[in-house]
Design brief:
The complex is a heterodimer of chains A (196) and B (84). Chain A has nine helices and no strands. Chain A has 196 residues and is mainly α. The chains are: A mainly alpha (196), B mainly alpha (84). Chains A and B meet through helix 3, helix 4, helix 6, helix 7 and helix 9 of A and helix 1, helix 2, helix 3 and helix 6 of B.
Chain lengths: 196, 84
């Protein structure tokens, strides 16, 4: 249930988290990895379409570089775009090491930019999700990102499976309102992120 | 009419699935693993025989020391031993 613990608004900002990591706080490091793990994973698997084994190597390499180079980050609040840049470099290096040269060129020609823009938008929606009630966060995350069935969700949350579709619909309406209001503004502000 | 209908929001939610738990856990262990590597390098600097063992069979020594010899750890340690 760590995701649901992570999205409350009393969590540290990105800048606060980075400052704590830099001072050697290992709990902060674990929190930072948790917060950006989906983002790095999506860049590797969705944007650059790396196979699972390559994506895993890149994932570890990105966080290793983040750990080693955190002291070089000039703006602690801009850690997410910085991580994105590291992830992109690692993915492109990995593609170049392989034989998928055409794919690399195709992605470099602009497709990767489009996919990254979409990820930015997705990140904004996820930030907005973090402001919804815990039951809404849970049902939307389980259904849309964990691909759980109504039956599984119903069993986990102890609610009748027959009510889940309507709950999802209500929660999506709340998410839309949140994202189109405050959430959408936050989505364009890289320093404000609190989600994982 | 909103550009963010249910279908669009669902698509955006699906764009950030969770990373495999084992990957996240491994990345969270980077600081303690780095600490262990520091200890191993310091020991190798002080003990020539240990250094030879380490270079001869890095993976086995790491496993014996309780450090998972994944490619990133191996590369980092080789680089540090070569740079001594």
């Amino acid at each position: 249930m760590r995701f649901y613990e992570s999205v409350s608004s009393d969590l540290p900002t990105d800048a606060e988290l980075v400052a704590r990591c830099r001072s050697g706080d290992q709990d902060a490091w674990r929190e930072l990895v948790e917060r950006f793990s989906r983002y790095v994973y999506a860049i590797a698997v969705q944007v650059y379409r790396l196979p699972e084994a390559d994506a895993e190597d890149v994932f570890q390499e990105v966080f290793t570089r983040v750990y080693e180079r955190l002291g070089q980050l000039r703006d602690d609040g801009a850690v997410r775009p910085w991580i994105a840049q590291l992830a992109r470099r690692c993915c492109v290096d990995r593609l170049r090491q392989g034989t998928r040269v055409e794919l690399t060129e195709e992605l470099e020609a602009g497709e990767a930019e489009d996919s990254l823009d979409r990820l930015e938008e997705a990140w904004g929606v996820r930030e907005a999700l973090g402001h919804l009630s815990q039951p809404c966060q849970e049902v939307l995350d389980r259904f849309f990102t964990r691909d759980e069935s109504y039956r599984t969700i119903g069993a986990a949350l102890e609610i009748p499976p027959g009510t889940i579709a309507s709950r999802i619909s209500r929660c999506l309406a709340q998410l839309r309102d949140r994202y189109e209001g405050e959430g959408r503004i936050q989505a364009r502000t890289p320093s404000g992120g609190r989600i994982r | 009419m909103s550009a963010y209908d249910e279908e669009r929001l669902a698509e955006l939610l699906r764009a950030l699935p969770p990373a495999p738990r084992a990957w996240v856990t491994a990345a969270q262990e980077i600081p303690p693993v780095r600490g262990r590597l520091d200890e191993l390098v310091a020991r190798a600097e002080a003990d020539a025989r240990y250094r030879e063992q380490l270079i001869a069979d890095l993976e086995r020594v790491l496993e014996a020391e309780g450090v998972e010899p994944n490619p990133i750890v191996l590369d980092a340690l080789r680089e540090r031993l070569a740079g001594e």
